[in-house]
Design a protein that fits this description.
The structure is a single chain. The protein contains eight helices and 21 strands. By secondary structure, the protein is an alpha/beta fold. The chain has three domains: about 170 residues, P-loop containing nucleotide triphosphate hydrolases (Rossmann fold), CATH 3.40.50.300; about 70 residues; about 150 residues, abc- transporter (atp binding component) like domain (Coagulation Factor XIII, Chain A, domain 1). Helix 3 packs across helix 5, helix 4 crosses helix 5 and helix 5 packs parallel to helix 6. It is globular.
Protein backbone atom coordinates (compact mmCIF):
# COMPACT_ATOMS: atom_id res chain seq x y z
CA UNK A 1 0.00 0.00 0.00
CA UNK A 2 1.40 3.38 -1.00
CA UNK A 3 2.41 5.77 1.74
CA UNK A 4 0.00 8.67 2.39
CA UNK A 5 2.05 11.87 2.22
CA UNK A 6 -0.77 14.41 2.58
CA UNK A 7 -4.06 14.03 4.48
CA UNK A 8 -6.70 16.76 4.79
CA UNK A 9 -9.61 16.37 7.19
CA UNK A 10 -12.67 18.65 7.53
CA UNK A 11 -10.76 21.64 6.13
CA UNK A 12 -12.72 24.91 5.89
CA UNK A 13 -11.78 28.53 5.24
CA UNK A 14 -14.09 31.43 6.01
CA UNK A 15 -13.68 35.04 4.85
CA UNK A 16 -15.51 38.21 5.85
CA UNK A 17 -16.45 40.21 2.76
CA UNK A 18 -15.32 43.79 2.31
CA UNK A 19 -12.75 43.89 5.10
CA UNK A 20 -9.18 42.84 5.74
CA UNK A 21 -9.00 40.61 8.80
CA UNK A 22 -11.60 38.67 10.72
CA UNK A 23 -14.04 41.52 11.31
CA UNK A 24 -14.77 44.10 14.00
CA UNK A 25 -13.42 44.35 17.56
CA UNK A 26 -16.82 43.25 18.88
CA UNK A 27 -16.61 40.09 16.73
CA UNK A 28 -13.09 39.34 18.00
CA UNK A 29 -14.20 39.87 21.63
CA UNK A 30 -17.18 37.60 21.03
CA UNK A 31 -14.87 34.91 19.63
CA UNK A 32 -12.55 35.30 22.63
CA UNK A 33 -15.43 35.07 25.13
CA UNK A 34 -16.74 31.90 23.51
CA UNK A 35 -13.21 30.47 23.41
CA UNK A 36 -12.41 30.87 27.12
CA UNK A 37 -15.73 29.20 27.96
CA UNK A 38 -14.82 26.26 25.71
CA UNK A 39 -17.58 27.00 23.22
CA UNK A 40 -17.51 26.96 19.42
CA UNK A 41 -16.72 30.12 17.46
CA UNK A 42 -20.20 31.65 16.92
CA UNK A 43 -19.32 32.89 13.44
CA UNK A 44 -18.63 29.39 12.17
CA UNK A 45 -22.37 28.78 12.34
CA UNK A 46 -23.10 31.49 9.81
CA UNK A 47 -21.95 32.24 6.29
CA UNK A 48 -22.92 31.25 2.79
CA UNK A 49 -21.30 29.16 0.11
CA UNK A 50 -18.88 31.01 -2.13
CA UNK A 51 -20.98 31.73 -5.22
CA UNK A 52 -19.35 34.82 -6.73
CA UNK A 53 -22.13 35.24 -9.32
CA UNK A 54 -24.95 35.85 -6.83
CA UNK A 55 -25.55 38.46 -4.16
CA UNK A 56 -25.87 37.00 -0.67
CA UNK A 57 -27.29 38.18 2.63
CA UNK A 58 -24.37 37.26 4.91
CA UNK A 59 -21.07 39.13 5.26
CA UNK A 60 -19.32 35.79 5.72
CA UNK A 61 -18.56 33.29 2.97
CA UNK A 62 -16.98 29.86 3.00
CA UNK A 63 -14.18 29.83 0.43
CA UNK A 64 -13.71 26.16 1.37
CA UNK A 65 -16.10 23.95 3.33
CA UNK A 66 -15.52 20.46 4.76
CA UNK A 67 -12.70 19.38 2.41
CA UNK A 68 -11.51 15.80 2.93
CA UNK A 69 -9.01 13.87 0.82
CA UNK A 70 -5.60 12.22 0.94
CA UNK A 71 -2.70 12.01 -1.50
CA UNK A 72 -0.24 9.15 -1.78
CA UNK A 73 3.47 9.48 -2.31
CA UNK A 74 4.39 9.80 -6.00
CA UNK A 75 0.84 10.75 -7.06
CA UNK A 76 0.07 13.66 -9.40
CA UNK A 77 -3.31 15.04 -8.35
CA UNK A 78 -5.25 17.48 -10.54
CA UNK A 79 -7.48 20.13 -8.97
CA UNK A 80 -10.05 21.65 -11.32
CA UNK A 81 -13.09 23.89 -11.12
CA UNK A 82 -14.43 27.24 -12.23
CA UNK A 83 -12.91 30.57 -11.16
CA UNK A 84 -13.81 31.15 -7.52
CA UNK A 85 -14.29 27.46 -6.75
CA UNK A 86 -11.57 27.54 -4.07
CA UNK A 87 -8.61 25.99 -5.91
CA UNK A 88 -6.07 28.73 -5.14
CA UNK A 89 -7.34 29.09 -1.56
CA UNK A 90 -6.70 25.39 -1.01
CA UNK A 91 -3.16 25.60 -2.37
CA UNK A 92 -2.41 28.71 -0.29
CA UNK A 93 -3.48 26.89 2.86
CA UNK A 94 -1.33 23.88 1.96
CA UNK A 95 1.60 26.24 1.28
CA UNK A 96 1.01 28.01 4.63
CA UNK A 97 0.39 31.35 2.95
CA UNK A 98 -2.83 31.52 4.96
CA UNK A 99 -4.29 29.34 7.67
CA UNK A 100 -7.47 27.28 7.73
CA UNK A 101 -10.49 28.33 9.78
CA UNK A 102 -11.19 24.74 10.85
CA UNK A 103 -9.83 21.30 10.08
CA UNK A 104 -6.41 19.67 10.03
CA UNK A 105 -3.61 19.09 7.51
CA UNK A 106 -1.08 16.29 7.97
CA UNK A 107 2.00 16.58 5.77
CA UNK A 108 4.78 14.01 5.71
CA UNK A 109 7.50 15.97 3.93
CA UNK A 110 8.56 19.33 2.57
CA UNK A 111 6.36 21.45 0.27
CA UNK A 112 7.53 23.73 -2.56
CA UNK A 113 4.96 26.07 -4.10
CA UNK A 114 4.63 27.90 -7.39
CA UNK A 115 1.48 29.98 -6.89
CA UNK A 116 2.00 33.30 -8.68
CA UNK A 117 4.49 34.72 -11.16
CA UNK A 118 7.56 36.04 -9.36
CA UNK A 119 6.48 34.95 -5.86
CA UNK A 120 9.52 35.07 -3.59
CA UNK A 121 11.64 37.01 -6.11
CA UNK A 122 13.25 40.36 -5.29
CA UNK A 123 13.11 42.63 -8.38
CA UNK A 124 16.45 44.32 -7.68
CA UNK A 125 18.37 41.06 -7.30
CA UNK A 126 19.78 39.09 -10.21
CA UNK A 127 18.34 35.83 -11.41
CA UNK A 128 21.16 33.86 -9.77
CA UNK A 129 20.72 35.69 -6.45
CA UNK A 130 17.00 34.99 -6.59
CA UNK A 131 17.68 31.30 -7.10
CA UNK A 132 19.43 31.27 -3.72
CA UNK A 133 16.76 33.48 -2.14
CA UNK A 134 13.89 31.37 -3.47
CA UNK A 135 15.66 28.16 -2.50
CA UNK A 136 16.18 29.45 1.05
CA UNK A 137 12.47 30.34 1.28
CA UNK A 138 11.70 26.75 0.27
CA UNK A 139 13.91 25.52 3.13
CA UNK A 140 17.00 24.51 1.17
CA UNK A 141 20.58 24.96 2.33
CA UNK A 142 23.17 26.88 0.34
CA UNK A 143 25.02 23.61 -0.27
CA UNK A 144 21.89 21.99 -1.76
CA UNK A 145 21.29 24.99 -4.03
CA UNK A 146 24.91 25.09 -5.22
CA UNK A 147 24.76 21.41 -6.14
CA UNK A 148 21.77 22.05 -8.43
CA UNK A 149 22.58 25.58 -9.63
CA UNK A 150 23.88 24.75 -13.11
CA UNK A 151 21.01 22.36 -13.73
CA UNK A 152 18.44 24.96 -12.60
CA UNK A 153 19.86 27.66 -14.87
CA UNK A 154 20.05 25.34 -17.86
CA UNK A 155 16.47 24.12 -17.41
CA UNK A 156 15.12 27.67 -17.07
CA UNK A 157 16.63 28.76 -20.40
CA UNK A 158 17.59 32.10 -18.82
CA UNK A 159 21.37 31.61 -18.75
CA UNK A 160 22.08 34.76 -20.77
CA UNK A 161 20.14 36.91 -18.29
CA UNK A 162 21.02 35.07 -15.07
CA UNK A 163 23.17 37.99 -13.82
CA UNK A 164 20.53 40.58 -14.74
CA UNK A 165 18.02 41.95 -12.15
CA UNK A 166 14.71 40.10 -12.47
CA UNK A 167 12.82 43.40 -12.72
CA UNK A 168 13.94 43.32 -16.36
CA UNK A 169 12.63 39.79 -16.92
CA UNK A 170 9.42 39.10 -18.79
CA UNK A 171 6.66 37.31 -16.89
CA UNK A 172 7.47 34.15 -18.86
CA UNK A 173 11.15 34.29 -17.82
CA UNK A 174 10.13 34.65 -14.17
CA UNK A 175 7.92 31.58 -14.47
CA UNK A 176 10.75 29.62 -16.09
CA UNK A 177 13.22 30.46 -13.31
CA UNK A 178 10.72 29.98 -10.47
CA UNK A 179 9.59 26.59 -11.77
CA UNK A 180 13.18 25.48 -12.32
CA UNK A 181 14.02 26.29 -8.68
CA UNK A 182 10.92 24.58 -7.25
CA UNK A 183 11.29 21.46 -9.41
CA UNK A 184 15.02 20.90 -8.98
CA UNK A 185 15.38 21.43 -5.24
CA UNK A 186 13.65 18.12 -4.57
CA UNK A 187 10.57 18.92 -2.48
CA UNK A 188 8.47 16.00 -1.31
CA UNK A 189 5.34 17.80 -2.54
CA UNK A 190 5.32 20.28 -5.45
CA UNK A 191 2.29 22.60 -5.57
CA UNK A 192 1.69 24.32 -8.94
CA UNK A 193 -1.13 26.78 -9.59
CA UNK A 194 -2.33 28.10 -12.98
CA UNK A 195 0.95 30.05 -13.27
CA UNK A 196 2.32 27.79 -16.06
CA UNK A 197 -0.30 29.28 -18.40
CA UNK A 198 1.95 32.35 -18.60
CA UNK A 199 4.82 30.37 -20.12
CA UNK A 200 5.20 29.63 -23.81
CA UNK A 201 4.16 26.30 -25.35
CA UNK A 202 7.72 24.95 -25.46
CA UNK A 203 8.30 25.61 -21.76
CA UNK A 204 4.88 24.26 -20.75
CA UNK A 205 5.74 20.98 -22.49
CA UNK A 206 9.13 20.95 -20.77
CA UNK A 207 7.57 21.69 -17.36
CA UNK A 208 4.94 18.98 -17.74
CA UNK A 209 7.66 16.49 -18.65
CA UNK A 210 9.62 17.49 -15.56
CA UNK A 211 6.58 17.02 -13.30
CA UNK A 212 6.01 13.57 -14.78
CA UNK A 213 9.66 12.73 -14.21
CA UNK A 214 9.82 13.83 -10.58
CA UNK A 215 6.66 11.89 -9.74
CA UNK A 216 7.46 8.67 -11.63
CA UNK A 217 11.21 8.50 -11.12
CA UNK A 218 11.69 10.58 -7.99
CA UNK A 219 8.62 9.32 -6.17
CA UNK A 220 7.54 12.86 -5.32
CA UNK A 221 4.00 14.21 -5.19
CA UNK A 222 2.53 16.98 -7.35
CA UNK A 223 -0.68 18.98 -6.81
CA UNK A 224 -1.54 20.69 -10.08
CA UNK A 225 -4.22 23.33 -10.75
CA UNK A 226 -5.06 24.25 -14.34
CA UNK A 227 -7.93 25.30 -16.61
CA UNK A 228 -6.30 23.34 -19.43
CA UNK A 229 -8.11 20.01 -19.40
CA UNK A 230 -5.72 18.50 -21.95
CA UNK A 231 -2.79 19.07 -19.60
CA UNK A 232 -4.70 17.79 -16.58
CA UNK A 233 -5.73 14.65 -18.48
CA UNK A 234 -2.16 14.00 -19.64
CA UNK A 235 -0.47 14.62 -16.30
CA UNK A 236 -2.92 13.50 -13.60
CA UNK A 237 -4.35 10.02 -13.05
CA UNK A 238 -6.74 11.29 -10.36
CA UNK A 239 -8.41 14.69 -9.92
CA UNK A 240 -10.62 16.66 -7.56
CA UNK A 241 -13.47 18.84 -8.80
CA UNK A 242 -14.25 21.85 -6.60
CA UNK A 243 -17.55 23.72 -6.82
CA UNK A 244 -18.30 26.75 -4.61
CA UNK A 245 -15.70 25.70 -2.07
CA UNK A 246 -16.78 22.07 -1.75
CA UNK A 247 -15.55 18.83 -3.31
CA UNK A 248 -18.14 17.94 -5.93
CA UNK A 249 -16.40 14.84 -7.24
CA UNK A 250 -13.14 12.99 -6.73
CA UNK A 251 -11.72 10.07 -8.71
CA UNK A 252 -10.16 9.17 -12.04
CA UNK A 253 -9.35 12.18 -14.22
CA UNK A 254 -10.84 10.39 -17.23
CA UNK A 255 -14.20 10.46 -15.42
CA UNK A 256 -13.90 13.86 -13.70
CA UNK A 257 -13.18 15.96 -16.82
CA UNK A 258 -16.24 14.89 -18.87
CA UNK A 259 -18.43 15.38 -15.78
CA UNK A 260 -16.97 18.87 -15.18
CA UNK A 261 -17.30 19.97 -18.79
CA UNK A 262 -20.88 18.72 -19.10
CA UNK A 263 -21.98 20.33 -15.83
CA UNK A 264 -20.07 23.60 -16.22
CA UNK A 265 -21.20 24.33 -19.75
CA UNK A 266 -24.84 24.69 -20.59
CA UNK A 267 -26.34 24.26 -24.04
CA UNK A 268 -26.88 28.02 -24.29
CA UNK A 269 -24.56 29.65 -26.82
CA UNK A 270 -22.69 32.83 -25.80
CA UNK A 271 -21.76 35.09 -28.71
CA UNK A 272 -21.72 38.52 -27.06
CA UNK A 273 -20.19 39.37 -23.68
CA UNK A 274 -19.36 42.65 -21.91
CA UNK A 275 -16.76 42.67 -19.13
CA UNK A 276 -16.88 44.71 -15.92
CA UNK A 277 -14.28 47.46 -15.56
CA UNK A 278 -11.13 46.40 -13.71
CA UNK A 279 -9.90 49.58 -12.06
CA UNK A 280 -6.48 48.21 -11.10
CA UNK A 281 -5.62 46.89 -14.56
CA UNK A 282 -3.62 49.11 -16.91
CA UNK A 283 -5.14 47.28 -19.87
CA UNK A 284 -8.26 45.17 -20.10
CA UNK A 285 -10.83 43.55 -22.33
CA UNK A 286 -14.09 45.48 -22.71
CA UNK A 287 -16.20 43.09 -24.77
CA UNK A 288 -16.08 40.15 -27.15
CA UNK A 289 -18.45 38.86 -29.80
CA UNK A 290 -18.85 36.52 -32.76
CA UNK A 291 -19.85 38.39 -35.90
CA UNK A 292 -21.05 37.32 -39.34
CA UNK A 293 -18.36 38.20 -41.88
CA UNK A 294 -20.82 39.31 -44.55
CA UNK A 295 -23.53 41.16 -42.59
CA UNK A 296 -21.44 42.34 -39.61
CA UNK A 297 -24.27 41.16 -37.32
CA UNK A 298 -23.69 39.28 -34.06
CA UNK A 299 -24.44 35.61 -34.66
CA UNK A 300 -26.96 33.65 -32.60
CA UNK A 301 -24.39 30.96 -31.81
CA UNK A 302 -24.91 28.64 -34.79
CA UNK A 303 -22.38 28.76 -37.63
CA UNK A 304 -22.52 26.56 -40.72
CA UNK A 305 -19.55 24.74 -42.14
CA UNK A 306 -19.65 27.01 -45.21
CA UNK A 307 -19.79 30.27 -43.25
CA UNK A 308 -16.83 32.56 -42.52
CA UNK A 309 -17.07 34.64 -39.34
CA UNK A 310 -15.16 37.13 -37.19
CA UNK A 311 -14.17 37.03 -33.56
CA UNK A 312 -14.28 40.68 -32.52
CA UNK A 313 -12.78 42.00 -29.28
CA UNK A 314 -12.76 45.50 -27.82
CA UNK A 315 -10.12 46.48 -25.29
CA UNK A 316 -8.60 49.45 -23.50
CA UNK A 317 -5.10 50.69 -22.73
CA UNK A 318 -5.11 53.11 -19.77
CA UNK A 319 -1.40 53.71 -20.15
CA UNK A 320 1.19 53.06 -22.84
CA UNK A 321 2.46 49.47 -22.79
CA UNK A 322 5.74 49.23 -24.76
CA UNK A 323 5.54 45.49 -25.30
CA UNK A 324 2.36 43.46 -24.97
CA UNK A 325 0.87 40.28 -26.37
CA UNK A 326 -2.71 39.49 -27.41
CA UNK A 327 -3.99 36.00 -28.11
CA UNK A 328 -7.25 34.19 -28.88
CA UNK A 329 -7.62 30.49 -28.11
CA UNK A 330 -10.38 28.34 -29.58
CA UNK A 331 -11.00 25.10 -27.67
CA UNK A 332 -13.26 22.16 -28.41
CA UNK A 333 -15.74 20.56 -26.00
CA UNK A 334 -12.97 18.45 -24.42
CA UNK A 335 -10.86 21.50 -23.61
CA UNK A 336 -8.25 20.82 -26.33
CA UNK A 337 -6.79 23.94 -27.94
CA UNK A 338 -7.77 23.71 -31.61
CA UNK A 339 -6.60 27.13 -32.76
CA UNK A 340 -4.07 29.56 -31.30
CA UNK A 341 -4.34 33.06 -32.82
CA UNK A 342 -1.58 35.49 -31.98
CA UNK A 343 -1.79 39.29 -32.48
CA UNK A 344 1.63 40.75 -33.22
CA UNK A 345 3.19 43.42 -35.40
CA UNK A 346 5.01 41.90 -38.37
CA UNK A 347 5.05 38.51 -36.63
CA UNK A 348 7.23 39.80 -33.80
CA UNK A 349 6.66 38.61 -30.25
CA UNK A 350 5.16 41.85 -28.91
CA UNK A 351 3.42 45.01 -30.09
CA UNK A 352 3.09 48.53 -28.64
CA UNK A 353 -0.17 49.34 -26.85
CA UNK A 354 -0.93 53.07 -27.02
CA UNK A 355 -3.46 54.74 -24.71
CA UNK A 356 -7.04 54.44 -25.96
CA UNK A 357 -9.85 52.06 -26.85
CA UNK A 358 -9.40 49.57 -29.68
CA UNK A 359 -11.44 47.10 -31.67
CA UNK A 360 -9.80 44.06 -33.26
CA UNK A 361 -11.20 41.37 -35.53
CA UNK A 362 -9.80 38.06 -36.65
CA UNK A 363 -11.41 36.17 -39.51
CA UNK A 364 -12.09 32.45 -39.11
CA UNK A 365 -12.43 30.73 -42.47
CA UNK A 366 -14.43 27.52 -42.68
CA UNK A 367 -14.03 24.60 -42.84
CA UNK A 368 -11.19 25.48 -40.44
CA UNK A 369 -13.35 24.03 -37.66
CA UNK A 370 -15.25 20.75 -37.85
CA UNK A 371 -18.85 20.48 -36.61
CA UNK A 372 -19.08 20.70 -32.82
CA UNK A 373 -19.13 23.03 -29.80
CA UNK A 374 -16.28 25.54 -29.37
CA UNK A 375 -15.16 27.95 -26.65
CA UNK A 376 -13.10 31.14 -26.94
CA UNK A 377 -10.48 32.22 -24.39
CA UNK A 378 -8.82 35.66 -24.54
CA UNK A 379 -5.37 36.54 -23.23
CA UNK A 380 -3.34 39.71 -22.66
CA UNK A 381 0.27 39.72 -21.49
CA UNK A 382 2.75 42.47 -20.64
CA UNK A 383 6.44 41.77 -21.11
CA UNK A 384 7.51 43.95 -18.20
CA UNK A 385 5.35 42.70 -15.33
CA UNK A 386 3.03 39.91 -14.29
CA UNK A 387 -0.32 41.69 -14.77
CA UNK A 388 -1.56 39.16 -17.29
CA UNK A 389 -5.26 39.30 -18.06
CA UNK A 390 -7.02 36.11 -19.15
CA UNK A 391 -10.71 35.53 -19.84
CA UNK A 392 -11.44 31.80 -19.94
CA UNK A 393 -14.22 30.33 -22.12
CA UNK A 394 -16.07 33.65 -22.48
CA UNK A 395 -17.68 32.84 -25.85
CA UNK A 396 -19.42 29.66 -26.94
CA UNK A 397 -20.60 28.76 -30.44
CA UNK A 398 -21.57 25.73 -32.45
CA UNK A 399 -20.46 24.68 -35.92
CA UNK A 400 -23.25 22.77 -37.67
CA UNK A 401 -22.80 20.65 -40.76
CA UNK A 402 -25.38 22.49 -42.86
CA UNK A 403 -23.55 22.01 -46.13
CA UNK A 404 -23.18 18.34 -47.06
CA UNK A 405 -21.13 19.26 -50.13
CA UNK A 406 -18.23 20.27 -47.88
CA UNK A 407 -18.12 16.91 -46.11
CA UNK A 408 -15.53 15.64 -48.55
CA UNK A 409 -13.25 18.56 -47.58
CA UNK A 410 -13.21 17.80 -43.88
CA UNK A 411 -9.45 17.54 -43.84
CA UNK A 412 -8.85 20.96 -45.38
CA UNK A 413 -7.21 23.57 -43.17
CA UNK A 414 -7.41 27.30 -43.82
CA UNK A 415 -5.29 29.65 -41.73
CA UNK A 416 -6.96 32.94 -40.58
CA UNK A 417 -5.91 35.56 -43.13
CA UNK A 418 -7.25 38.76 -41.58
CA UNK A 419 -6.55 40.43 -38.28
CA UNK A 420 -7.51 44.10 -38.21
CA UNK A 421 -7.12 46.59 -35.38
CA UNK A 422 -8.60 50.10 -35.26
CA UNK A 423 -8.75 52.78 -32.56
CA UNK A 424 -12.31 53.68 -31.52
Amino acid sequence: MSEVILKIENLSKQYRLGLVGTGTISHDLNRWWHGIRGKEDPYLKIGEQNDRASKGESKYVWALKDINFEVKKGEVLGIIGKNGAGKSTLLKILSKVTGPTTGSIKINGRIASLLEVGTGFHPEMTGKENVFLNGAILGMTKKEINAKLDEIIEFSGCERYIDTPVKRYSSGMKVRLAFAVAAHLEPDILVVDEVLAVGDAEFQKKAIGKMQSISQEGGRTVLFVSHNMTTINKLCKNSILLESGRISKIGLTSEIIPYYLSSARTEEMITNVVFEEESLMKYQFLSAMIVDSSSDQILDGIVSTKQDFFIEINYLFKTRIPKCHLTILIKNSLGDIILFIDRTDFYQEFFVGEIGKYSAKVKIQNPLLKPGIYYVTLGFANQYNNTNNHKFDVLKFKIEDLDSIRNSREGDLFIPTEWTMVKI
